[in-house]
Amino acid sequence: MQAIDQYRSTLDQLSKGIWAHPEAGYRETYACDATAKVLRDAGFEVEIGAGGVPTAIRASFGSGHPVIGLLGEYDALPGLSQECCGTEKKPVEGQGYGHGCGHNLLGVAHVGAAIGIKEEIEKNHLPGTVVYYGCPGEELLTGKPFMARGGAFRDLDLAMAFHPNTNNSATMGVSTALNSAKFHFKGRTAHAGGDPHNGRSALDAVELMDVGANYLREHVTSDVRIHYTILEGGTAPNIVPDKASVWYYVRALSRDAVVDCYDRLVKIAKGAAMMTETEVEIEFLGGCYNRLNNKVLTEMVDGIMRELPQEPWTQEELDFAKKLNESSASQWKKFLQKHNLPEDTQLHTGVLPIQYENTFASSDVGDVGHIVPTVSFTTACFAIGSPGHSWQFTSCSGSSIGEKGMIYAAKVMAVAGARILENPKIAEEAMAEFKASMGGKEYVCPIPDEVPLP
Prior knowledge:
Low-confidence stretches: none
Helix content: 25-40%
Strand order of the largest sheet: 1-2-6-3-7-13-8
Mean pLDDT: 97
Structural class: alpha+beta
Shape: globular
Radius of gyration: 23 Å
Number of helices: 14
Number of strands: 13
Strand content: 15-25%
Order of helices and strands: HHHEEEEEHEHEEEHEEHEHHHHEHHH
């Protein structure tokens, strides 16, 4: 904890630098280089291009077991540019991306944890290894699967994953697995008024596929989610479109359910092509697993969060959060009621009970969780009412509120790492639970070898 405090200025500068240079998935060159430099300067052995992904990092220190992995991320989101600490939506001019999921905080918190664990290894001469992974493209839900396909994470004994949120809590809830694919239809142009009979409409094929997918919803399990957006649909009403594309996500609370539903969706696409006498090309973009959280590690992290002091909020921070909460008042009040918090609570203090509620969002942390025992938790980095993937998140991500949550998370992971190094039996118990949960199955990367990196 002392080492993290000593590095706080460096960590804050790194986080704010990444916040000010938001980058798309697989293009995180600034974040990758800046993060690698801090780790290299701190004494880590740093590899850029981990798992064959150009902007991925593997930074390690120590030797022997247990090997503790820290899962950092640093990609941003399109359309979520926002001025720092603003209480109204106001994008930064000329900036197309923004940290509306707080990955500038996420990546750097794991850097801080790595530095803290390294200090513990050095000062107490402990056997064990800490590994920081900088994982690109999480918002595309394929970064860690691509890294895993390239051999990453296999040398770990366990992994820890922090994510910024509106509250402090560890989770045992499941997030959804996912498949992502684009369906490109090719037809034949014709004059839509003069000789429509000579045309074969690719747009008709897209629309028929969408209708079929919507009928499919009646015949899937209740955990399945299917959503899409039309990427291309023609150029003018009087031209039969010869090209049209639609992009689909299929989600479910298990990998098997995703694969089953996706296979049926592919049949619908082929049927739409047959009905319209068009051709369909399927561009499979990848997928990810559902989370598989580890109870041994989750209960340990929950206990540590309750032990460590949370830095108090200033009045200025509370006033700022209040204005943000007023911009999403219904969500703010719903959270307060759900968790029985005072009605004037603007920023979360304390620790919620371990969360067992499932989420229908997805995270590629689930892939690591099917390779080694993994724990996931959140800390309060945003105003309570802030919606996920929002300008409010971006505004807080660059503020002192985000910084405090980031440092708290770094200390939680560092203390957890220290306890595991001092008592390797924790890692052994976590692995025993992991093997029981897997039931003899092994991780199979959801992205085939022939699918190229984006």
